[in-house]
Structures are given as C-alpha cells and as structure tokens.
C-alpha cells in the first residue's frame, strides 16, 4: 500500500548531512510538504511521496546523491549513469557486478561488494569513508540496491537476512518495511543475504523502461515500503481501506487458514496485535488523507470509522503527537 507512512526518525536522519554543512533545511521541508513540527515529535510520520520529494530536493540542493554523508560528493546523475552502464547486461549477477565496479571508480565512496556463499549471495556495503551517525546512507544504499535488483529481473528478491555492524536502534520496529527478513545487529558486516539463484536471472528491463524508472528513482525506491511476506502485511492487505467494514479477527484467521488462537500467537511473535495493526492502518490512512485537500477532517474521521471528530482528534494526537488540524495546516 502506498499509504504506508515513514517515521519522523528518517526525516531527521536524512537532513543531518545538510545540517552539518550549515544549511537551513526548513524551506526544503516546506517544499516537500512536511511540517517542521514533525522533527520535534518522535511519534510523527510522513507520507511516502513527501519523503521521496524531500530526498529529491536534498539531492538538487546539495548536488550530492550521498546527501552530505560522504567526504566526497556524488554528483546528481551518477546513479543514472550507473544504471545506463548495467542495463544491457545479460544477467543480474553481471549487472550488479558491473554496478559495484562503477562505484569502485570513485575514491572514498562507500564500497559495495557482491559475493557468493554457496547457495547464497551477499551484498555488502562498507561505511569506512562515511560520516553517517544514524546509518542513514548505508541503509539507504542497501534498500536501493535490493530494489534496483528486483526491478531489473521483474520480481521481488526475497531477503533471507540483513546484518548491521551497529547495535539495534530504538526505531528497530521500522525495519520491517525496509528489510522484511531476519535481522542481526552488532554483526561483522552491513549486508543483505539472498538466494544465489536470482543472480542467473535475465534482465527484463531495457533503455526504454529505464528512462521511466529514472524519473522517480532512486528516491522512490527509498520511500516505497517493502512489506514482504510478513503476517502483518498479509493482514493489512486483507483489511483494505474500508475501516467501517473491516473483517474481525476470526474471519481474517479463516482467510489465512489458521485458528484465531494461532493468529494471535503469530502476531505476538511479530511484536504486534490485531488491534495495533488496525490502529496503524487507520493512522497511515489518516496521514494519507490529511496530505490531500479532498476530504474535510470530519469526513476523514467518518471514513476511518470514528463516531465523532473528537475521538479522531484524540486518537491521531496519541498516534503522532500532533492534532489532525495542526498536521494539515502546516502541510505544504
């Protein structure tokens, strides 16, 4: 779902490189339709398109695809040129290998390696040359390369494991949307592990589809959540957008071919609950609608299944730390 929202942590983290260079980022936030109050509130969230717009604005403003996190700039157009260099490769392995060689031409750039480990392949990103206190750039590179590879072969590459050289952060729950797989922190490398069989797959894209792809990427790749095959993602899909006619837990369990007790247990194991899933979906739909002017706040409250606007106000403030009115009035 495009309505999957992005935590304010990532907005703050994205701005750190520009701020370190002494830039005032408030005008960029406003141009992206993000209210500066989001930065002060840890529970606040933004829509994917707002985040993608912010990344694009930062690239343009800094003329740096590394967003100020590397000692040397990566001028705008570098990623596009790399894509042109790999688009005619026969297989995914040849394309990824050529891509890593391309970035290897730039001194002090983050190092990217692809290696086989038996039936597995590992894509590793090195951060030796980075000033990246929130690990924003290194995580962004992992996400971008994973989603680029998936786009090239026309199917999602299922991740087996994501490893990180640093300790598990406070916002670790957000990683479900970035790395929908097993995650290991305090590891020897920052990497993604997936089945090597994908490497032999042919590229299904060409110069024509690349042109369209580059209109939105890699910012869109970064902003588009990848909910993978997790149980919570399956349930969100079954719930859909009509909050008033949401199925109950029993009927959802039936559609997933399991008992309600088993469903509850699996959700507990994923650190969630049926009620929390519904709350998160309502929150994300609220942010989606508040970012557009089509519906009044009262209409949004009704559409989300709230009996009265005051109940919606209280819930939204609890979810994001901001009132719906404050969120909307500072949009744009």
TrEMBL record:
Domain named HTH araC/xylS-type: residues? 229-330
PROSITE patterns in alphabetical order = HTH_ARAC_FAMILY_2
> Has the keyword Transferase been applied to this entry?
no
Any idea which GO molecular function terms this record carries?
A: DNA-binding transcription factor activity; transcription cis-regulatory region binding
Entry-linked Pfam families: Arabinose_bd (PF12625), HTH_18 (PF12833)
Q: State the InterPro entries in the record.
A: AraC-type_N (IPR032687), Homeodomain-like_sf (IPR009057), HTH_AraC (IPR018060), Tscrpt_reg_AraC-type_HTH (IPR020449)
GO cellular component assignments: cytosol
Q: Does the keyword tRNA processing apply?
A: no
Query: Under what name is this protein listed?
Result: AraC-type DNA-binding protein
């Amino acid at each position: 779902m495009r309505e999957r929202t992005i935590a304010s942590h990532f907005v703050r983290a994205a701005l750190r490189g520009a701020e370190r260079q002494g830039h005032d980022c408030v005008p960029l936030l406003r141009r992206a339709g993000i209210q500066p109050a989001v930065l002060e509130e840890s529970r606040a969230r933004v829509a994917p398109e707002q985040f993608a717009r912010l990344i694009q604005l930062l690239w343009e403003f800094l003329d740096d695809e590394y967003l100020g996190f590397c000692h040397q700039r990566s001028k705008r157009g570098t990623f596009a040129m790399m894509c042109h260099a790999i688009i005619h490769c026969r297989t995914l392995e040849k394309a990824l290998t050529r891509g890593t060689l391309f970035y290897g031409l730039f001194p002090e750039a983050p190092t990217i390696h692809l290696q086989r480990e038996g039936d597995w392949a590992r894509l590793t990103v090195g951060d030796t040359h980075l000033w990246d206190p929130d690990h924003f750039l290194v995580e962004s590179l992992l996400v971008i390369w994973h989603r680029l590879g998936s786009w090239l072969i026309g199917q999602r590459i299922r991740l087996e494991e994501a490893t990180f050289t640093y300790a598990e952060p406070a916002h670790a729950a957000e990683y479900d949307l970035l790395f929908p797989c097993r995650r290991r922190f305090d590891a020897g490398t920052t990497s993604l592990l997936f089945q090597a069989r994908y490497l032999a797959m042919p590229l299904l894209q060409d110069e024509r589809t690349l042109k369209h792809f580059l209109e939105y990427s890699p910012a869109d790749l970064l902003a588009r959540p990848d909910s993978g095959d997790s149980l919570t993602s399956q349930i969100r899909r079954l719930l859909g957008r009509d909050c008033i006619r949401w199925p109950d837990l029993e009927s959802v369990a039936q559609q997933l071919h399991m008992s309600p007790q088993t469903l509850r247990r699996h959700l507990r194991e994923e650190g969630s609950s049926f009620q929390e899933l519904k709350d998160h979906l309502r929150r994300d739909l609220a942010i989606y609608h508040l970012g557009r002017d089509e519906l009044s706040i009262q209409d949004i409250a009704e559409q989300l299944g709230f009996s009265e606007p005051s109940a919606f106000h209280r819930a939204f403030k609890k979810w994001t730390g901001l009132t719906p009115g404050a969120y909307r009035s500072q949009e744009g």
